[in-house]
Amino acid sequence: MRAVRAHTTPRALSRAKTTSTSRRRAVERGGLRMKPAPGWQQDLNMRASERGAAPTRAISDESVVDADGVVIDGTQAIAKDALLEPHREHLKYRYETFEKRKAAIASAESSVEKFALGYEKYGFTVDKATGDVTYREWAPAAAHLALIGDFNGWNAGATPMTKSEFGTWEVTLPKGTIAHGSRVKVRVYAGDRGEFDRIPAWCRRATVEPGVMGAGYDGVFWAPEEKYEFKHPSPPKPSASRIYEAHVGMSSNDPKVSTYREFADDILPRIAIGGYNTVQLMAVMEHAYYGSFGYHVTNPFAVSSRSGTPEDLKYLVDKAHGLGVRVLLDIVHSHASSNVNDGIAGFDFGQGAEDSYFGAGADGYHWLWDSRLYKYDNWEVMRYLLSNLRYWVEEYKFDGFRFDGVTSMLYHHHGLQMDFTGDYAQYFSMATNVDAVVYLMLANDMLHTLYPEIEVIAEDVSGMPTLCLPVSEGGVGFDARLAMSIPDFWVKYLKERPDEHWSMSEMVSTLCNRRYTEKAIAYVESHDQSIVGDKTTAFWLMDAEMYTGMSTLNEPSFVIERGIALHKMMRLLTASLGGEGYLTFMGNEFGHPEWVDFPREGNNWSHDYCRRRWDLADADHLRYQFLLAFDKAMLALDETHQYMSAAHQHVSSADDARKLLVFERGPLVFVFNFHTNETYEGLEIGVGEPGKYQLVLDTDAGEFGGASRCGFGVDHFTTPDGPPSWVGPWEQTPRPCKMFVLSPARSAQVYRRVDAAEVATEVATEVA
Fold it and tell me: What keywords were assigned to this record (predicted)?
């Protein structure tokens, strides 16, 4: 979900609406200064003293330095980006705020890491020695709480709770009082605001009563005697993540809601064989409204019950690890569903923001998403969200997170009705939500401290500088951001630009538009491009002809031939030039047709567009197989040559007239010809090193549905007479060597240099 995106969203779970808004591309400029708001240190000292802890010490004028003598004040990033200089005071202020909050937590709770073990105290916990069950809930504004459920006949008078310090209510049930699987709720008495039943905020499972039409969700006490035991360790963090974005519920070939175990057994092997080293799971956090794509979370600690139990999800993660695939969770801390009956929003009943999970008034409501916004500087909100992160890693062994809706968190305006131009004044101003930024810094600092191999990715459309720099350097601490301008660029070209007007220089500008030392995950399309109101890249390219023209038993039409060629070229160009990792949405690697539309009243509650047609890719008489085979080869090339993570990236030619693009990434040379009909024989291209080059990947190969116009057995030698005479209008330093290649229209080729040892072996073999 993105701050500038409208999507199918619930309003009291009674109706759905779908709108779409444009996305904004971020570039780099600007400057403005922000001064700190007063009073935070006093607030922290008061909170610490309430807990009987010593007040935190304000950061002194004496600078803190690291082992190398570098001052640690949040401004180290300026050395990497001089445009940050006008915002030095802002960077210092947010880093000082981060340090103060971290120190306050450490003073009151020993450390942020222990603070983030809230799930061991709140919600339902079982005493290992006695078997007694204690239930705790933070509700400082409530007049009274009572635990109700199957175990006591839903009798609020049977299990009253008592209020302890800091607004926490609790009750202890003797062993055997409540059984595993019992349905539960907490009755909240809110004085003159009335009384109502709510699902416990820290509940680890929530379900609807089976067979009851229109039933609401109930919390479930989850404490199985036999918990799933993990068998496989997490795979190591890869140099470049090749991410498969997946939705378990819609992963079946059949029109139904699929399960975690079905996904583990049927889909994970496809992902691993396809060459993806990471799967990103959407819609795992419980959400009452299926059509929200999982982004209107109701119960942050609960596993979506539509697809199975918590133990089933553990089986999925463990199965992935056994296949060498890491698992990222699509985490939603940017907002929560406004559904008060089934979710955490129900604990806000009009009290002040200091006693709520959410902000007051407009500060606590996202008008476009119809959802609630967390108050990130509240003590118990920080505990809740940080504990949520640690819980998913500790309990389910997730290898990282993709933070959804980060743009909405970074700014008080949430990115709404904003056109991010790249002016740095848009990133560092009074519009910046420093409380949310500092929460993200605390989260990333904690995660990377506890789990050095973790990967945390930000979905941010604004392009905020420092977002993906370490917290120790004054950054927000993410490992990478999604390169969200790239899919927008491709959609714009497919919608508005005839092939003859495609610009090579615009491609380079868009794909290379990322900050030095801040990693990006490139992609042609994610789930965003597939939701109803839009359509997949393959459908933009081939549209209705996909229904009749994908059979290999007939010659391809012009539309199909063009579509298959560009589908492969767009992916290869994006993967090789657009970032330090790559992502695709489930099924789009083989050109999944049409769009995604969840069951709703408007489509007669149909699952027909909420599934994945794996049968299309598996059919040996359909051309989908060619797109899938190419995707596998493209990722296998990265496994062998690690071009996605390579620091070396040099564009030597970008010729808009001839539609040619030549560049180096890592040890490979890429040649793209986007011309509609011009094939260049003996094309002179520049390369970085002399020697022999061989073709290692060709979008035009027959196995990928092409015409096989290039030969894999041809050796290409550089010539000794200096750099190429042609470099095109893209201004780059001419390469020191040149060679000649065949470049067919609408195709791309990748070459590797044969190293000296290989050449010597070949010579020795020939002599023998």
Answer: Amyloplast, Plastid, Transferase
What values do phi and psi take at 568, rounded to 5? Answer: -70, -45
Q: How far apart are CA 339 and CA 458, in angstroms?
A: 26
The CA distance from 307 to 597, in Å, is: 18
- Is residue 663 within 8 A of residue 592, CB to CB? The reply is no
Query: Which of 330, 404, 435, 589 is labelled catalytic?
Result: 404
Cα Rg of the chain, angstroms: 28
404 catalytically annotated: yes
Q: Where are the domains of the chain?
A: 130-221, 242-552+580-640, 643-767
Of residues 464, 457, 477, 450, the one with CA closest to residue 523? 457
d(CA 374, CA 388): 14
Is 459 a residue of the active site?
Answer: yes
- Distance, in Å, from the CA atom of 603 to the CA atom of 598, rounded to the nearest integer, reads 8
In the three-class reduction of DSSP (H, G, I as helix; E, B as strand; rest coil), residue 300 is classed as strand
Query: What letter would DSSP give residue 586?
Result: T
> Is the pLDDT confidence value at 305 over 50?
yes
Please give the CATH architecture assigned to the domain spanning 643-767. Sandwich (2.60)
Cβ–Cβ under 8 Å, residues 258 and 248: yes
User: Can you give the length of the chain in residues?
Assistant: 768
What pTM was computed for the model?
A: 0.90
3-state secondary structure of 268: helix
CA 478 to CA 161: how far, in whole Å? 40
The CATH architecture one would assign to domain 242-552+580-640 is: Alpha-Beta Barrel (3.20)
Set 137, 245, 370, 459: catalytic member = 459
Burial of 340 (0-12, 13-18, 19+ CB in 10 A): middle
The H or E element spanning position 123 is strand 123-126
**Residue pLDDT, tens place only, 524-550:** 999 998 887 788 999 999 999 999 999
Q: What percent of the chain has pLDDT over 70?
A: 87
Query: What is d(CA 429, CA 248) in angstroms, rounded to the nearest whole number?
Result: 40
Quote the tokens at residue 531.
């939701």
CATH superfamily, domain 130-221, is Immunoglobulins (2.60.40.10)
